[in-house]
Amino acid sequence: MVKVPESSGSAPLFDYAPAPESRAVVDLSPSYGLFVDGVFVDGGGRSFKTINPATEEVLAEVAEADERDVDAAVQAARRAQDRVWGRMSGRERAKYLFRIARIIQERARELAVLETLDNGKPIRESRDVDVPTAAAHFFYYAGWADKLEYAVPGRPDVRPLGVAGQVIPWNFPLLMLAWKVAPALAAGNTVVLKPAETTPLTALLFAEICQQADLPPGVVNIVTGAGATGRAVVAHPGVDKVAFTGSTEVGRSIARTVAGTDKRVTLELGGKAANIVFEDAAIDQAVEGIVNGIFFNQGHVCCAGSRLLVQESVAEEVLDRLKRRMATLRVGDPLDKNTDVGAINSAEQLGRIRDLAQVGEDEGAGRWSAPCELPAQGFWFPPTLFTGVSQAHRIAREEIFGPVLSVLTFRTPSEAVEKANNTPYGLSAGVWTEKGSRILWMANQLRAGVVWANTFNKFDPTSPFGGYKESGYGREGGRQGLEGYLR
Ligand code: NDP
């Protein structure tokens, strides 16, 4: 059936038949252990449940690593680094990385379905973005493993750091694992990785992939758990390098923990990116870019374009078209191949989004949500925008980490720059204009690690990614991503 949209807020153009991806491809075990020294072990005894945020169904019981378990993992990683991995030629290491990359491709469907079940993100995204980009990271860094003498300009004699302790968040579980593990292994380090408490399952499937690839025991160790497990990894004296992605608050506490030690650190923290639309931009494309910038992955994206800066002369038109487009977003079952916006990852995160949205209203901003029916079970928040937002509003300053867009306006390019840079963060920005000279000028002015021009949220393993200011330090991706794992 075809419906004609009448105005913003109208029903979608088409009714879609359900198109659910089968979950039969995933072989879920009722319980999972830790992956230490090449095998799954029980750990200290405590465990926690991981659930499907779209249905609240318990997916599995997962072991919670305590300090002793983390110690065992670090020791296994040390042995593997000293005896096997650190001594192996780059050419040999590359073979393992290529093998892992190919197995990720071969098991792509299984990984995508599992990621969607555990995280709540639409299968369209886990299938088309998370999993292929994770494989691409392993392919890319496999190519570097035997060329490390060219990785750091002027320093052909680089060496691995040793054992890397890596703590990752829940928004891109497998992809963040790949961002961390691939460069570390290529550079000759071994790793102890802690996935987020709410999304441990694809990391555990990755552990199986390491077994399948015959990766030597101890090169990759996965310790599941919550914040305390992460703290134990970061604080362990046998860890030479800490790599963290997550909130600025936890990033600060990690920086305090490692201060005064000789551990190397890279921190990939929060963001409050400006997505800047000039009056000469191709408006329909810009609207797609705004939607992709903030509603991709339910807005659980550190580099999300969560502040829309739109030139006053086109603000009304952009908002009108944006609302129409938002009204066509399909929110619901993440396993349905037609779904655009899935479930919020946890009840806790949903609470945070709701609280900040309420603050937006209390501070006087105008709230508008796309008309959509939210499922009764699970954690859901409709795609929402706020107009009449001023720079002082908390929704313009704080990372909401959900499908919520704050809209501000500007008149001149320099005002756009002032407003875009008026944030404690500096991870990313977007510029929409038809003028190449303006793109280059803006890119020079914006204090952000990544500036996208006439696009948004594009990720490529060859391109360095990282922040200014409170968005963290160090770069991941590209040749630069290797520097953090070499001495
Ligand atoms: P956290 O920063 O708490 O979580 C990131 C990872 O660090 C998780 O694996 C977490 O474990 C672990 N961790 C928590 N505390 C410590 C600690 N003291 N030492 C070492 N590791 C620790 O993010 P949250 O999940 O709590 O999300 C809170 C907010 O952070 C979000 O609302 C969002 O604004 C922001 N965030 C930003 C991200 C980004 O990429 N910029 C990613 C995730 C969140 P566990 O999962 O068990 O808590």
Itemize the secondary structure elements and their pairings.
Layout: E1 31-32, E2 34-36, E3 39-41, E4 47-51, E5 58-63, H1 67-85, H2 90-106, H3 108-119, H4 123-144, E6 163-167, H5 173-186, E7 190-194, H6 201-212, E8 220-222, H7 227-235, E9 241-245, H8 248-258, E10 264-268, E11 274-277, H9 283-295, E12 307-311, H10 312-327, H11 347-362, E13 366-369, E14 384-387, H12 394-397, E15 404-410, H13 413-421, E16 428-432, H14 436-445, E17 450-453, E18 472-473, H15 480-483
Parallel strand pairs: 1-5, 6-7, 6-9, 7-8, 9-10, 11-12, 11-16, 12-15, 14-15, 16-17
Antiparallel strand pairs: 2-3, 4-5, 10-18, 13-14
Helix pairs in contact: 2-4, 3-4, 4-5, 9-10
The structure holds NADPH dihydro-nicotinamide-adenine-dinucleotide phosphate.
Instruction: Write down the overall geometry.
Output: globular
Number of helices: 15
Strand segment count: 18
The strand line-up of the biggest sheet is: 13-14-15-12-11-16-17
Question: Averaging pLDDT over every residue, what do you get?
Answer: 95
Secondary-structure-derived class: alpha/beta
Radius of gyration, CA atoms, in whole angstroms: 22 Å
Terminal residue distance: 62 Å
Bound ligands, named by name, code or SMILES: NADPH dihydro-nicotinamide-adenine-dinucleotide phosphate
Major sheet attributes: 7 strands, mixed
